[in-house]
Sequence to fold (359 residues):
Amino acid sequence: MTENTAPLRVPLVLLAAFAVVAALKLATGLFAPIVFALVVGVVLAPITDRLARLGLPATVCALGGLLMAIILALLFVLFLQPHVMELVRRWPILWAEAQSVIADVQRILNGIEEVADNVAKALDGDEGGEKADAGGASAAVPNVATAISYAPALAGQALIFIGTLFFFLLSRGEVYALLASVAPRLSVRRLFTAERVVSRYFLTITAINGALGLAVTAALMVIGMPNPILWGVLAFVVNFVPYLGPALFATTLAIAGILVFDGVYGIVPAACYLVLNMTEGQFVTPALVGRSMSINPLLVFVTLTAWLWLWGPIGGIVALPILLWVLSLTGWRVGWGPEEMPPLAARSPHKTAAMAGDE
Fold:
Protein backbone atom coordinates (compact mmCIF):
# COMPACT_ATOMS: atom_id res chain seq x y z
CA MET A 1 0.00 0.00 0.00
CA THR A 2 1.47 3.39 -1.04
CA GLU A 3 1.75 6.44 1.18
CA ASN A 4 -1.12 8.12 -0.69
CA THR A 5 -3.52 5.28 0.02
CA ALA A 6 -2.35 4.54 3.59
CA PRO A 7 -4.81 7.03 5.21
CA LEU A 8 -7.68 5.15 3.54
CA ARG A 9 -6.79 1.85 5.16
CA VAL A 10 -8.80 2.32 8.37
CA PRO A 11 -11.99 3.54 6.61
CA LEU A 12 -11.75 0.67 4.14
CA VAL A 13 -11.36 -1.87 6.95
CA LEU A 14 -14.36 -0.38 8.77
CA LEU A 15 -16.46 -0.46 5.60
CA ALA A 16 -15.46 -4.07 4.95
CA ALA A 17 -16.37 -5.03 8.53
CA PHE A 18 -19.71 -3.26 8.21
CA ALA A 19 -20.40 -5.06 4.93
CA VAL A 20 -19.59 -8.44 6.48
CA VAL A 21 -21.85 -7.80 9.49
CA ALA A 22 -24.67 -6.61 7.22
CA ALA A 23 -24.33 -9.71 5.04
CA LEU A 24 -24.37 -12.01 8.08
CA LYS A 25 -27.47 -10.25 9.39
CA LEU A 26 -29.39 -10.14 6.12
CA ALA A 27 -28.55 -13.73 5.10
CA THR A 28 -29.09 -15.34 8.50
CA GLY A 29 -30.96 -18.28 7.00
CA LEU A 30 -27.91 -19.17 4.90
CA PHE A 31 -24.90 -18.31 7.05
CA ALA A 32 -26.24 -19.36 10.48
CA PRO A 33 -26.61 -23.10 9.67
CA ILE A 34 -23.27 -23.08 7.82
CA VAL A 35 -21.33 -21.56 10.71
CA PHE A 36 -23.18 -23.71 13.23
CA ALA A 37 -22.27 -26.82 11.21
CA LEU A 38 -18.61 -25.76 11.09
CA VAL A 39 -18.54 -25.29 14.87
CA VAL A 40 -20.18 -28.68 15.42
CA GLY A 41 -17.71 -30.22 12.97
CA VAL A 42 -14.75 -28.80 14.88
CA VAL A 43 -16.16 -30.20 18.12
CA LEU A 44 -16.74 -33.64 16.57
CA ALA A 45 -13.35 -33.69 14.84
CA PRO A 46 -11.61 -35.79 17.55
CA ILE A 47 -14.29 -38.47 17.21
CA THR A 48 -13.92 -38.71 13.43
CA ASP A 49 -10.13 -38.78 13.80
CA ARG A 50 -10.41 -41.67 16.24
CA LEU A 51 -12.57 -43.55 13.74
CA ALA A 52 -9.99 -42.84 11.02
CA ARG A 53 -7.22 -44.30 13.19
CA LEU A 54 -9.18 -47.55 13.21
CA GLY A 55 -8.68 -47.75 9.44
CA LEU A 56 -12.21 -46.73 8.44
CA PRO A 57 -12.67 -44.81 5.16
CA ALA A 58 -13.01 -41.04 5.37
CA THR A 59 -16.61 -41.21 4.14
CA VAL A 60 -17.59 -43.61 6.93
CA CYS A 61 -15.88 -41.40 9.51
CA ALA A 62 -17.76 -38.32 8.27
CA LEU A 63 -21.05 -40.24 8.26
CA GLY A 64 -20.35 -41.39 11.81
CA GLY A 65 -19.89 -37.82 13.04
CA LEU A 66 -22.97 -36.66 11.14
CA LEU A 67 -25.14 -39.47 12.53
CA MET A 68 -23.96 -38.71 16.05
CA ALA A 69 -24.99 -35.06 15.70
CA ILE A 70 -28.38 -35.98 14.21
CA ILE A 71 -29.09 -38.59 16.88
CA LEU A 72 -28.26 -36.17 19.70
CA ALA A 73 -30.50 -33.50 18.13
CA LEU A 74 -33.39 -35.97 17.70
CA LEU A 75 -33.07 -37.20 21.28
CA PHE A 76 -33.21 -33.63 22.53
CA VAL A 77 -36.30 -32.86 20.43
CA LEU A 78 -38.04 -36.08 21.51
CA PHE A 79 -37.30 -35.26 25.14
CA LEU A 80 -38.71 -31.73 24.88
CA GLN A 81 -41.77 -32.63 22.79
CA PRO A 82 -44.06 -33.94 25.58
CA HIS A 83 -43.03 -31.10 27.90
CA VAL A 84 -43.76 -28.51 25.23
CA MET A 85 -47.15 -30.07 24.52
CA GLU A 86 -47.95 -30.07 28.23
CA LEU A 87 -46.93 -26.42 28.47
CA VAL A 88 -49.18 -25.53 25.54
CA ARG A 89 -52.06 -27.45 27.14
CA ARG A 90 -51.65 -25.74 30.51
CA TRP A 91 -50.84 -22.31 29.11
CA PRO A 92 -54.27 -20.73 29.89
CA ILE A 93 -54.02 -21.85 33.54
CA LEU A 94 -50.42 -20.68 33.86
CA TRP A 95 -51.25 -17.36 32.21
CA ALA A 96 -54.17 -16.81 34.61
CA GLU A 97 -51.87 -17.46 37.57
CA ALA A 98 -49.26 -15.14 36.07
CA GLN A 99 -51.88 -12.41 35.64
CA SER A 100 -52.84 -12.80 39.30
CA VAL A 101 -49.21 -12.34 40.35
CA ILE A 102 -48.86 -9.36 37.99
CA ALA A 103 -52.02 -7.81 39.45
CA ASP A 104 -50.63 -8.17 42.97
CA VAL A 105 -47.38 -6.51 41.90
CA GLN A 106 -49.32 -3.72 40.19
CA ARG A 107 -51.35 -3.10 43.34
CA ILE A 108 -48.14 -2.81 45.34
CA LEU A 109 -46.63 -0.43 42.79
CA ASN A 110 -49.85 1.62 42.64
CA GLY A 111 -49.80 1.91 46.42
CA ILE A 112 -46.22 3.13 46.33
CA GLU A 113 -47.15 5.61 43.59
CA GLU A 114 -50.09 6.92 45.61
CA VAL A 115 -47.85 7.45 48.63
CA ALA A 116 -45.35 9.31 46.44
CA ASP A 117 -48.14 11.49 44.99
CA ASN A 118 -49.45 12.33 48.44
CA VAL A 119 -45.98 13.28 49.62
CA ALA A 120 -45.47 15.43 46.52
CA LYS A 121 -48.82 17.16 47.02
CA ALA A 122 -48.02 17.81 50.66
CA LEU A 123 -44.69 19.34 49.70
CA ASP A 124 -45.69 21.60 46.78
CA GLY A 125 -49.48 21.71 46.99
CA ASP A 126 -49.88 20.50 43.43
CA GLU A 127 -53.40 19.19 42.93
CA GLY A 128 -52.88 18.23 39.29
CA GLY A 129 -51.29 15.23 37.75
CA GLU A 130 -52.45 12.40 35.64
CA LYS A 131 -52.14 8.71 36.19
CA ALA A 132 -51.90 6.19 33.45
CA ASP A 133 -54.03 3.11 33.82
CA ALA A 134 -52.36 -0.19 33.37
CA GLY A 135 -53.70 -1.94 30.33
CA GLY A 136 -54.51 -5.58 30.14
CA ALA A 137 -52.13 -8.04 28.66
CA SER A 138 -52.94 -10.82 26.30
CA ALA A 139 -51.09 -13.98 25.71
CA ALA A 140 -49.85 -14.58 22.22
CA VAL A 141 -49.51 -18.31 21.67
CA PRO A 142 -48.45 -19.43 18.19
CA ASN A 143 -51.05 -21.61 16.53
CA VAL A 144 -50.48 -24.65 14.37
CA ALA A 145 -50.75 -22.71 11.10
CA THR A 146 -48.02 -20.30 12.18
CA ALA A 147 -45.76 -23.19 13.14
CA ILE A 148 -46.36 -24.94 9.80
CA SER A 149 -45.49 -21.75 7.90
CA TYR A 150 -41.95 -21.96 9.30
CA ALA A 151 -41.49 -25.60 8.27
CA PRO A 152 -40.03 -25.05 4.75
CA ALA A 153 -37.44 -22.56 6.00
CA LEU A 154 -36.45 -24.83 8.88
CA ALA A 155 -36.18 -27.82 6.54
CA GLY A 156 -33.94 -25.85 4.20
CA GLN A 157 -31.68 -24.74 7.04
CA ALA A 158 -31.52 -28.30 8.33
CA LEU A 159 -30.38 -29.53 4.90
CA ILE A 160 -27.74 -26.79 4.74
CA PHE A 161 -26.51 -27.79 8.20
CA ILE A 162 -26.35 -31.50 7.36
CA GLY A 163 -24.57 -30.96 4.04
CA THR A 164 -22.03 -28.52 5.47
CA LEU A 165 -21.28 -30.74 8.46
CA PHE A 166 -20.79 -33.88 6.35
CA PHE A 167 -18.52 -32.32 3.76
CA PHE A 168 -16.51 -30.44 6.38
CA LEU A 169 -15.86 -33.65 8.32
CA LEU A 170 -15.01 -35.38 5.04
CA SER A 171 -12.47 -32.81 3.83
CA ARG A 172 -11.21 -30.83 6.81
CA GLY A 173 -7.60 -31.16 5.70
CA GLU A 174 -8.33 -29.77 2.24
CA VAL A 175 -10.37 -26.90 3.69
CA TYR A 176 -7.54 -25.93 6.03
CA ALA A 177 -5.01 -26.18 3.20
CA LEU A 178 -7.16 -23.82 1.13
CA LEU A 179 -7.42 -21.33 3.99
CA ALA A 180 -3.65 -21.48 4.49
CA SER A 181 -3.05 -20.80 0.80
CA VAL A 182 -5.41 -17.80 0.83
CA ALA A 183 -4.09 -16.31 4.10
CA PRO A 184 -0.26 -16.38 4.10
CA ARG A 185 -0.06 -15.79 7.85
CA LEU A 186 -1.96 -19.00 8.56
CA SER A 187 -0.69 -22.54 8.27
CA VAL A 188 -2.40 -25.91 8.28
CA ARG A 189 -0.66 -26.79 11.53
CA ARG A 190 -1.95 -23.65 13.22
CA LEU A 191 -5.49 -24.30 11.96
CA PHE A 192 -5.44 -27.84 13.37
CA THR A 193 -4.08 -26.48 16.65
CA ALA A 194 -6.95 -24.00 16.84
CA GLU A 195 -9.35 -26.85 16.10
CA ARG A 196 -7.94 -28.83 19.03
CA VAL A 197 -8.31 -25.81 21.33
CA VAL A 198 -11.99 -25.34 20.48
CA SER A 199 -12.75 -29.07 20.61
CA ARG A 200 -11.09 -29.68 23.96
CA TYR A 201 -12.63 -26.60 25.50
CA PHE A 202 -16.13 -27.37 24.21
CA LEU A 203 -16.02 -31.02 25.26
CA THR A 204 -14.81 -30.04 28.74
CA ILE A 205 -17.53 -27.41 29.07
CA THR A 206 -20.10 -29.97 27.90
CA ALA A 207 -19.07 -32.33 30.71
CA ILE A 208 -19.22 -29.49 33.25
CA ASN A 209 -22.65 -28.36 32.04
CA GLY A 210 -23.87 -31.97 32.21
CA ALA A 211 -22.80 -32.19 35.84
CA LEU A 212 -24.51 -28.86 36.54
CA GLY A 213 -27.71 -30.13 34.91
CA LEU A 214 -27.67 -33.25 37.11
CA ALA A 215 -27.08 -31.14 40.21
CA VAL A 216 -29.94 -28.78 39.33
CA THR A 217 -32.23 -31.77 38.71
CA ALA A 218 -31.37 -33.29 42.10
CA ALA A 219 -31.80 -29.98 43.96
CA LEU A 220 -35.18 -29.21 42.38
CA MET A 221 -36.32 -32.77 43.02
CA VAL A 222 -35.48 -32.40 46.71
CA ILE A 223 -37.43 -29.14 47.12
CA GLY A 224 -40.44 -30.51 45.20
CA MET A 225 -40.26 -28.43 42.01
CA PRO A 226 -42.37 -29.94 39.19
CA ASN A 227 -40.52 -31.34 36.15
CA PRO A 228 -37.02 -31.29 37.69
CA ILE A 229 -35.51 -33.28 34.81
CA LEU A 230 -36.75 -30.72 32.29
CA TRP A 231 -35.25 -27.89 34.34
CA GLY A 232 -31.98 -29.80 34.58
CA VAL A 233 -31.80 -30.26 30.82
CA LEU A 234 -32.55 -26.58 30.26
CA ALA A 235 -29.85 -25.64 32.78
CA PHE A 236 -27.42 -27.80 30.81
CA VAL A 237 -28.33 -26.10 27.51
CA VAL A 238 -28.40 -22.45 28.61
CA ASN A 239 -25.03 -22.74 30.35
CA PHE A 240 -23.39 -22.87 26.91
CA VAL A 241 -24.22 -19.14 26.68
CA PRO A 242 -22.18 -17.57 29.52
CA TYR A 243 -23.69 -14.79 31.63
CA LEU A 244 -26.84 -14.24 29.57
CA GLY A 245 -28.00 -17.87 29.56
CA PRO A 246 -27.80 -18.41 33.35
CA ALA A 247 -29.35 -14.98 34.01
CA LEU A 248 -32.33 -15.76 31.78
CA PHE A 249 -32.69 -19.24 33.27
CA ALA A 250 -32.58 -17.93 36.87
CA THR A 251 -35.24 -15.35 36.04
CA THR A 252 -37.49 -17.96 34.43
CA LEU A 253 -37.00 -20.34 37.33
CA ALA A 254 -37.82 -17.57 39.80
CA ILE A 255 -41.09 -16.80 37.99
CA ALA A 256 -41.97 -20.50 37.84
CA GLY A 257 -41.18 -20.90 41.54
CA ILE A 258 -43.44 -17.99 42.46
CA LEU A 259 -46.25 -19.52 40.40
CA VAL A 260 -45.81 -23.00 41.93
CA PHE A 261 -45.05 -22.24 45.59
CA ASP A 262 -46.54 -19.80 48.07
CA GLY A 263 -44.71 -17.10 49.93
CA VAL A 264 -40.96 -16.79 50.24
CA TYR A 265 -40.51 -20.46 49.33
CA GLY A 266 -41.14 -19.47 45.72
CA ILE A 267 -37.62 -18.05 45.35
CA VAL A 268 -35.94 -21.20 46.70
CA PRO A 269 -35.62 -22.92 43.26
CA ALA A 270 -33.88 -19.90 41.75
CA ALA A 271 -31.68 -19.55 44.85
CA CYS A 272 -30.60 -23.20 44.58
CA TYR A 273 -29.70 -22.74 40.93
CA LEU A 274 -27.73 -19.56 41.60
CA VAL A 275 -25.69 -21.30 44.32
CA LEU A 276 -24.92 -24.24 42.02
CA ASN A 277 -24.12 -21.96 39.08
CA MET A 278 -21.78 -19.80 41.17
CA THR A 279 -20.04 -22.92 42.49
CA GLU A 280 -19.55 -24.16 38.94
CA GLY A 281 -18.32 -20.81 37.66
CA GLN A 282 -15.98 -20.00 40.52
CA PHE A 283 -14.50 -23.41 41.35
CA VAL A 284 -15.34 -26.26 38.94
CA THR A 285 -14.74 -24.59 35.57
CA PRO A 286 -11.44 -22.87 36.54
CA ALA A 287 -10.16 -26.14 38.03
CA LEU A 288 -10.96 -28.26 34.96
CA VAL A 289 -10.47 -25.77 32.13
CA GLY A 290 -7.46 -24.03 33.64
CA ARG A 291 -6.54 -20.45 34.29
CA SER A 292 -4.44 -20.37 31.11
CA MET A 293 -7.63 -20.51 29.03
CA SER A 294 -9.37 -17.67 30.83
CA ILE A 295 -10.69 -14.93 28.56
CA ASN A 296 -11.40 -11.31 29.41
CA PRO A 297 -15.04 -11.24 30.64
CA LEU A 298 -15.73 -8.00 28.78
CA LEU A 299 -14.54 -9.55 25.52
CA VAL A 300 -16.77 -12.59 26.12
CA PHE A 301 -19.79 -10.43 26.95
CA VAL A 302 -19.38 -8.15 23.93
CA THR A 303 -18.87 -11.13 21.62
CA LEU A 304 -21.96 -12.88 22.98
CA THR A 305 -24.06 -9.74 22.65
CA ALA A 306 -22.98 -9.21 19.05
CA TRP A 307 -23.64 -12.80 17.96
CA LEU A 308 -26.96 -12.93 19.82
CA TRP A 309 -28.00 -9.79 17.97
CA LEU A 310 -26.94 -11.35 14.69
CA TRP A 311 -28.43 -14.84 14.93
CA GLY A 312 -30.28 -15.21 18.22
CA PRO A 313 -29.79 -18.49 20.14
CA ILE A 314 -27.57 -20.01 17.43
CA GLY A 315 -25.34 -16.95 17.62
CA GLY A 316 -25.06 -17.37 21.38
CA ILE A 317 -23.94 -20.99 20.95
CA VAL A 318 -21.31 -20.34 18.28
CA ALA A 319 -19.98 -17.09 19.78
CA LEU A 320 -17.52 -18.55 22.28
CA PRO A 321 -16.11 -21.31 20.00
CA ILE A 322 -15.51 -18.73 17.26
CA LEU A 323 -13.84 -16.40 19.75
CA LEU A 324 -11.58 -19.21 20.96
CA TRP A 325 -10.71 -20.15 17.38
CA VAL A 326 -9.79 -16.56 16.45
CA LEU A 327 -7.74 -16.02 19.61
CA SER A 328 -5.88 -19.27 19.05
CA LEU A 329 -5.04 -18.33 15.46
CA THR A 330 -3.73 -14.95 16.60
CA GLY A 331 -1.28 -16.56 19.03
CA TRP A 332 -3.28 -16.48 22.26
CA ARG A 333 -1.75 -18.85 24.81
CA VAL A 334 -4.20 -21.66 25.57
CA GLY A 335 -2.16 -24.14 27.56
CA TRP A 336 -1.06 -26.32 24.65
CA GLY A 337 0.52 -25.53 21.32
CA PRO A 338 1.89 -27.11 18.15
CA GLU A 339 4.81 -28.60 20.03
CA GLU A 340 2.37 -30.65 22.09
CA MET A 341 0.37 -32.01 19.15
CA PRO A 342 0.68 -35.71 18.37
CA PRO A 343 3.08 -36.77 15.60
CA LEU A 344 1.81 -36.94 12.05
CA ALA A 345 1.75 -40.72 12.09
CA ALA A 346 -0.82 -40.67 14.90
CA ARG A 347 -3.29 -38.52 13.00
CA SER A 348 -6.04 -39.47 10.64
CA PRO A 349 -5.08 -40.18 6.99
CA HIS A 350 -6.88 -37.17 5.47
CA LYS A 351 -5.36 -34.88 8.11
CA THR A 352 -1.83 -36.28 7.64
CA ALA A 353 -1.87 -35.69 3.89
CA ALA A 354 -2.84 -32.08 4.30
CA MET A 355 -0.27 -31.33 6.99
CA ALA A 356 2.59 -33.15 5.33
CA GLY A 357 2.67 -30.58 2.55
CA ASP A 358 2.57 -27.76 5.10
CA GLU A 359 5.78 -28.98 6.70
